[in-house]
Design brief:
single chain; about 270 residues; alpha+beta; eight-stranded mixed beta barrel; about 25% strand
Length: about 270
């Protein structure tokens, strides 16, 4: 009977294969753990950190202005305009004049017309249906604005209460995701914007479920989609636009919610 002879070189090759397989398995497990941690960081930690940061900024603005004048579910945010002036009235707001210029009113409201510095938080957006209260900062840069959990104001669009379009952007997922549920907004829901000078109440009018990320028409002075022209407006007015990415967890398309100014109350 012949006994098979296993040479040293064969044993070494087998041992090398075992070590390679073991090392490969350890690497795969390590990579899996790292990816899991990255997912947790993106979906949980960035949200927690940004939401906390946004809440602190809202509180800081309220301290700077004095006591808060609006909160989710409050009389003003729920649309209790009372005797508040309507768009176009001679209430101290920036209103169109027959010559194409603008009439300026009370000094307290005019203070809101000074353009904020880039990335500066200068207003508070409140949406009662979403239980959302978040800072508004100038610009839509990711690192300096959106990733902080803020909502960003598109430079070149109008400021709150001005004739035209006050256009905003916010993350739908991660980094506080303030606009995650704006698809739940319905016609008639209220949106308030509070600045140092005044409280503006807008009412949701319509929404554009999906359009190209390059559809600049949705934030035009008279907002109207250039991709889907049946969505939007044809006449000047006092508009607010909320934009975010869609579908969730992608940035391929954009969605927009439009509203109209109903009232303004000076602080």
């Amino acid at each position: 009977m012949r006994v098979p002879v296993v040479q040293h070189s064969t044993r070494r090759r087998r041992a090398l294969r075992r070590r390679t397989l073991w090392t490969g398995g350890e690497l795969l497990v390590t990579v899996g753990v790292v990816l899991l941690l990255l997912v947790v960081h993106q979906l949980w930690w960035t949200n927690r950190q940004a939401q906390h940061n946004a809440e602190r900024k809202v509180q800081a603005l309220e301290r700077e202005w004095g006591s808060p004048s609006a909160s989710p579910g409050g009389a003003d945010s729920a649309g209790g305009g009372g005797s508040s002036p309507s768009p176009g009235s001679s209430d101290g707001r920036d209103t169109p004049s027959p010559t194409g210029g603008r009439r300026q009113g009370g000094g307290a409201v005019n203070a809101a017309r000074a353009l904020p510095d880039l990335s500066q938080a200068y207003a508070v957006l409140t949406i009662p249906r979403l239980s959302l209260r978040v800072p508004v900062a100038e610009g839509v840069g990711k690192q300096d604005v959106l990733n902080k959990g803020y909502v960003g104001h598109y430079k070149g669009t109008q400021q709150p209460g001005q004739a035209g379009n006050f256009a905003l952007a916010g993350h739908r997922n991660t980094h506080g995701e303030p606009f995650r549920y704006i698809n739940r907004l319905r016609r008639g829901d209220t949106i308030t914007v509070e600045t140092k000078a005044a409280l503006y109440t807008y009412v949701v009018d319509t929404a554009l479920p999906q359009t190209s990320a390059r559809d600049g028409g949705v934030i035009a002075r008279v907002p109207r989609s250039t991709v889907r022209p049946s969505y939007g407006y044809s006449e000047p007015g006092y508009y607010i636009t909320l934009t975010t990415c869609t579908p969730e967890y992608t940035s391929k398309y954009r969605m927009a919610v439009w509203g109209k100014l109903r009232s303004m109350r000076p602080r």
